[in-house]
Design goal:
Length: about 210
């Protein structure tokens, strides 16, 4: 079972009319895909792979806020977990595939020197450190008698909510939708832990997902 959801915004490749977003893709020109050898089947995150490849080929990827697209979204935690697992593992595949991009010269090398570092930090390091934050919170509240632990945790959630609200403001979204974000972050973080750990273990063992 799945439902349809509207995906707002897309990234476009300058010098052509091709466009893509995380869940949808469209193109009216084959030039960037031809130079990047098409949409590769080597990773499960083909959008991440293609974006990195396009950037390395010298194209500039920009954001188009007025685009509209439809995508299928998970409606159960089990389906969501499997989707996130494939996305997480696919992102690691893309990072490994383009690991030499930091040596590229000029603007093409920025994706390696900055983009891969961003992916490494926010797709791997921070999700793996998340459990430590929750353990610290629980330890501080119930064992160490540290009242500031909950304050720090709430401040962290407030910063996340403020960032999401600012992003919605820039995109013309409804700010009221951020009301449930703190609870969503707590639930989603518990889902992210095993997904990222499973993806790392799978990658270390060299297994392939289909």
């Amino acid at each position: 079972m799945s439902t349809r959801d509207s995906s707002v915004g897309r990234t476009t490749c300058r010098r052509t009319r091709s466009a893509r977003s995380g869940a949808t893709a469209t193109s009216s020109s084959n030039r960037p895909r031809t130079r990047c050898r098409g949409i590769s089947a080597q990773t499960l995150a083909e959008d991440t792979d293609l974006t990195i490849a396009i950037t390395r080929a010298g194209w500039r990827v920009t954001y188009t806020p007025d685009a509209r697209a439809w995508t299928e979204v998970p409606v159960t935690l089990g389906v969501l977990s499997r989707q996130r697992y494939r996305w997480s593992f696919g992102t690691f595949q893309s990072m490994w595939k383009h690991r030499s991009s930091w040596r590229d010269r000029g603007p093409a090398g920025r994706i390696g020197r900055y983009g891969l570092i961003y992916l490494f930090a926010f797709q791997l390091v921070l999700p793996l450190l998340g459990p430590a934050m929750d353990v610290f919170l629980l330890y501080g509240m119930f064992v160490a008698d540290a009242p500031h632990a909950i304050t720090i945790w709430l401040l962290f959630l407030a910063i996340q909510t403020a960032g999401a609200g600012y992003a919605l403001h820039l995109d013309g979204g409804v700010l009221a939708s951020t009301v449930g974000l703190p609870l969503q972050q707590v639930v989603h973080r518990q889902l992210t832990y095993p997904v990222v750990i499973q993806s790392v273990v799978t990658a270390i063992h060299g297994a392939q997902l289909k």
